[in-house]
Amino acid sequence: MSISENIKKYQGSLPKNTTLVAVSKTKPVSSLLEAYDAGQRVFGENKIQEMASKWEEMPKDIQWHMIGHVQTNKVKYMAPFVDLIHTVDSLKLLREINKQAAKHDRVINCLLQIKIAEEEHKFGLDHQDALLLLAKDIQATLPHVSIVGLMGMASFTDNKTQIETEFKKLSTLHKEFIKQHPQLTVLSMGMSSDYTLALDHGSTMVRIGSSIFGARNYN
Ligand SMILES: *Cc1c(COP(=O)(O)O)cnc(C)c1O
User: Fold this and answer.
1) Is the CB of 208 under 6 A from ligand 1?
2) Structural domain contains residue 218
């Protein structure tokens, strides 16, 4: 199927309250434009410079989501335009986002990335560290950042039971956090291979790349 058919398929089949993030990393602007013309307005990228150059080229009514690991020294390149950063995993990063957002007189939306996978290399906060970042006294020092939810990535595995266990872990945490912090409305979990499982466990935002744009070529 074409990119625009894929977009229409997802737009037609996802539950109403679910946001589709079209993950366009490594793909050319021509592919993004095809998705845009099919009505897609939310795009996810994992490299800040790549996102910034696509932002310059693409129409201006797009919401750009950063879904990759963020190095503090690169926040300044996306601060003028980024709509949501999915991958906040430290106070140091949150402070830098606040500082750069202030320069543009903006409030930048963020998700706390929670480590749910068993794999060692995956980034993310644990339960306690995430709660610390949400504490009132910390939040009071960060007027240019708005934490609106949680994000997680399941292990890279074919084992459905394991993926489901990891999604359950995140959704349980989300339910617990939202009692104290009702602003955490977003739960970003699920990719091409596992988004239906993620939806079963309360995901409100799915990040779909290869099943919209085709397999990625990293050469
Ligand atoms: C690349 C990526 C995706 C999309 O993966 P697909 O398997 O192509 O759907 C989703 N989330 C994150 C964090 C990614 O880096």
Assistant:
1) yes
2) no
